[in-house]
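Lay summary. Proteins are chains of building blocks that fold into shapes, and those shapes determine what they do. In this project we predict the shape from the chain. Here is one chain we studied, written as its sequence of building blocks.
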Amino acid sequence: MHTILGANGVIGEELARILKKRYTNNIRLVSRTPKKINSSDNLQPADLLHPDQALAAIKGSEIVYFTVGLPLDTTLWENDFSKILKNVIDACIQNQARLVYFDNTYMYPMTGELLTEETAFSPAGRKGKVRAGMAEMVLTAIDRQRLRAMICRAPEFYGPGKTASFTNTLIFEAIRKKKKTESAVIRRYASYFDIHSGRQCRCIIARKCRRYLESNMASSLR
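And here is the predicted shape, written in a compact code that computers can read:
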């Protein structure tokens, strides 16, 4: 069973489509009010803030994809995000499920330096500190050999549909509605992730993560 947490967000929906098309029919979609993306999807309503519901959502899963998103409310992130992830990690460990954790780059320094897997976390804002803490939770569980997991990161993303990002909201939506954009001009290079272009990336992850996560020594992509 491949279980997608946060299944009706834009990342979860794209992942469900590509898993069905290229890899498996055995897909479980988890959210508070999940909706089918493919006709064969299994739906599991759950509030991941509750440990028992997280455990039930992940029960019987081989691979769990964490694509959970919250509204861009800093206080909500601080109160809920780490609790959700802890419940998911505990449930994965109890069910011996492998975790694919989709992350962003908020925890890295906001400078023009090239980011690599060796770049140290240096979050500048409150949201960045939340994401840094969450990443450390995953890495600690891996280092203690309690969890088999991988971290997959993408920077700011944009695209059609429900894509909820600053770039979409402040720039592309304003252009579409023929409104004046209020965002400041960015005077340094930045990386962006296109939702459609990322389909192939998610397909590769779906096809390769089983072998990666079955290695004897658990490791992470950082």
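What the prediction tells us: Residues 113 and 119 are 9 Å apart (CA to CA).
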